[in-house]
Amino acid sequence: MRLSAYFVPTMKETPAEAQIVSHRLMLRAGMIRQMSAGIYAWLPLGHRVLRKVESIVREEQDRAGCQEMLMPTVQSADLWRESGRYDAYGPEMLRISDRHEREMLYGPTNEEMITSIFREECRSYRDLPKLLYHIQWKFRDEVRPRFGLMRGREFLMKDAYSFDMNFEGARKSYNRFFVAYLKTFARMGLKAIPMKAASGPIGGDMSHEFLVLADTGESAVFCHRGLLALEPPGDDVDYGGDLQPIVDTWTSLYAATDEEHDPAQEAALGGDLVKARGIEVGHIFYFGTKYSKPMRAVVAGPDGQDIPVEMGSYGIGVSRLVAAIIEASHDDAGIIWPESVAPFRVGLVNLKADDAGCAQACETFYANLGRAGVDVLYDDRDARAGIKFADMDLMGLPWQLVVGPRGLKNGLVEIKNRATGERQEVTMESAMSHLMG
Question: pTM score, two decimals?
Fold first, then answer.
């Protein structure tokens, strides 16, 4: 993509309403624009990142054995009355009526709908287990939407749901998602710590929030230092095998949010206690028969008797992850994207657009890198070098390839690593080889 033609309205000044780093940088880098309170349009640069994050989430769900579907954004109020949640949910739910005065709602979550779909199609224990997910927009009418995407009203979520015949099966499903989440966040360059969350009236130990550590995090978190050194599971994970040892490794060390933490346990950890800030990016939760019993989602067991299925839900805030990555990876100059989610891998900077040699070299790089499958944003604008460097740092592309007349005289170009700031002059051939690797 040529920057001269790209719709990326960067800003020099920080808007007054932007209170946290991710909100400021996403506005300044031309990734999003606010349409109304807590509702944002995703501009081309931001949309590319969103889709890359979504792709990683989808790939890891598929690898864990989950099947993708897509449920509507608008739901019937009658489904929610079956579960007893329609009146209890509160004003965060956007309630609407269609032209026939049927009560509807814009879905804040999908437990009722997926339970309805399951009960109509699955009748026997032989149909189990089932792991289903979708990636869909949600709406929750926050009373005070703020912090950009971190607490907006409209957001993109991955919701997954498991259906099992008994608790033993439900635990196996839970473990699949636990491991898949560790892999998902690691692929985005994030260290996400699973922390025990409130289980509500069901109790038990099968509810975990996944929090990314960031200085600007919304919550205080407390954990054992050893968790920071743990390596996430690799690609050789056997989802059909016993995943309990992996889960036990990650849950054997102390980790808690400010709402769940235990000062006595923390005091015993001494120097191994880490106090930090965290951003919740995922939540997995076993809720047993909370929905299957009132909504009659049952299967015939081996003895022919009806059994309400055991269920769990597993959420990842896809759009929220974009902001969380920025909160965890930035500097004073702008965003620092991990390569896996960067909108472009390389920012190609022509320091002198009206110089024939620079233009020819840049066109060669642009064409060859594109043919090699490398995403390139080519700054071909007739603008000062300082403006170009500032915009590239703001947008945070992993690599900058700088072409100027002085270097070209000696057959050299400059490569800059955005994360480390390291610069090196190399030949054009070496630059191509490096950026294609």
Answer: 0.95
